[in-house]
Design brief:
By secondary structure, the protein is α/β, with parallel strands linked by helices. It contains seven helices and 20 strands. α2 crosses α4, α4 runs parallel beside α7 and α5 packs parallel to α6. The protein is globular.
Length: 423
């Protein structure tokens, strides 16, 4: 750990979200506990000049309302020549996958090709993806993964109360759902998958969906969404995220330096983001740097967990660990609900959260009463330390600049096998 003086606070999340949302249509209407389905945002996100990206979900500036963290590549995907399933000449780019597939991710993170048999990874998102199961089937068959269906007991989809009553469909959140299901499958193809769809994107409804996932037996729960911190966060912690013996992962956000909730919860593993590139001639075969869009920094409300020893934040520091999130080094996803049906390329910390949840599943069932977010802090040598890159300006401190040891954008690092996620 590198002790430093407290660093300057990030600009208020609402101001940075507003700046990034120029041209996006938010359209959120509050009506009691229900919220109108958001329109997907069209704003670009931090990335290089060769790609254009769009948010799958509209930016939310309302307290306690969440937005998903998926970034879809809308132009320039043809420059991503790292697919393990090459595109055929002369076909529509959406007909075959670009972006990293399961073999790439297993290679990059030294993960076993077996493990997690029968374990349940839960995906919590808002609204319904009517094509979730059929899209998942295409992804898995394309990459030679075994079928995961309702019929064979591998896949299950429920509403936030755990019943077959599902919320309204929404194209933006459907993209998020497809991304999450595909990443869980890529990392842990032998795992079962439970999709819990919240009635709306309010924290209260998403939190109820988390509780339902745990009550249905999931020991690994991925949450690829976030919003501005609020004074209600500590009550949300105790109501929705305090589940001993359950690994709950949350995206750190895609708005660069600054903190979102529920990544700030002391009960979750906050997952930051990296740029991941193949590097022939190196021992690992890959290189990683901090992704410019990854969220990080000091929570305003959540207490610091005892296992976090960095000195730049008196309260909770984000993130804990990380995985690929840069759209420039994005992943292949199959989605057909809404516009542009077919194969697409996605980035955002919506990629890294389900990856880490599935790595926890490969590592084995957390011990009863344990706090899985503490596991990586006890096994730092079993992570790839990310030592370069930045996600913003914070006086040059580790809170926004990667370096040896712990840093904000990438946390303790990325998986080097599963040992860091056992406990």
């Amino acid at each position: 750990m590198r002790p430093i003086p407290a660093s300057p606070a990030a600009p208020p999340r609402s101001l940075r979200r507003a700046a990034l949302a120029l041209g996006a249509v938010a359209g959120l209407v509050v009506s009691g506990a229900a919220l109108a389905a958001p329109t997907a945002g069209a704003a670009t996100s931090p990335t290089s000049h060769r790609l254009t990206t769009a948010r799958s979900c509209a930016v939310s500036n309302r307290p306690d309302v969440m937005a998903c963290s998926a970034l879809k590549v809308t132009a320039g995907a043809e420059t991503l020549a790292h697919s393990t399933v090459p595109a055929a000449a002369g076909v529509n780019p959406a007909a075959t996958p670009s972006g990293y597939g399961p073999a790439d991710l297993h290679s990059a993170y030294a993960l076993p090709t077996t493990g997690g048999s029968g374990a349940t990874v839960a995906i919590v998102d808002a609204y319904d993806d009517p094509n979730a199961e059929s899209n998942l089937a295409t992804y898995r068959s394309t990459y030679g993964l075994s079928a995961c269906t309702t019929a064979n007991g591998c896949f299950k989809k429920v509403g936030q109360s755990g019943t077959s009553s599902l919320p309204a469909a929404n194209a933006g959140w459907a993209e998020e759902i497809s991304l999450d299901l595909d990443m869980a499958s890529a990392i842990c193809p032998q795992c079962h998958i439970l999709l819990v769809e919240a009635t709306s994107s309010s924290m209260a409804n998403l939190g109820k969906a988390v509780n339902t996932a745990v009550s249905l037996g999931a020991k690994y729960v991925s949450n690829s969404y976030g919003g501005s911190e609020s004074s209600s966060d500590t009550s949300y912690d105790s109501s929705y995220f305090n589940h001993p013996g359950v690994a709950i992962t949350v995206s750190s956000g895609d708005d660069s330096y600054g903190v979102e909730y529920p990544a700030a919860s002391r009960y979750v593993t906050a997952v930051g983001g990296t740029s991941l590139k193949k590097a022939s001639g190196t021992t690992r075969g890959w290189t990683e740097t901090a992704w410019t869009g990854a969220g990080s920094g000091c929570s305003r409300y959540d207490a610091k967990p005892t296992w976090q020893k960095d000195t730049g934040c008196t309260r909770r520091t984000v993130a804990d660990v990380s995985a690929v999130a840069d759209p420039n080094t994005g992943v292949a996803v199959y989605d057909t609900y809404g516009g542009d049906p077919g194969w697409e390329v996605f980035g955002g910390t919506s990629v890294s959260s389900p990856i880490i949840a599935a790595v926890y599943a490969l590592a084995g069932t957390p011990s009863a009463g344990s706090t899985p977010s503490s596991f990586p802090y006890a096994h730092t040598s079993a992570l790839f330390d990310i030592t370069s890159g930045s996600n913003g300006s914070c006086g040059g401190s580790y809170l926004c600049t990667a370096g040896p040891g712990y840093d904000g954008p990438t946390g303790l690092g990325t998986p080097n096998g599963t040992a860091a996620f056992k406990g």
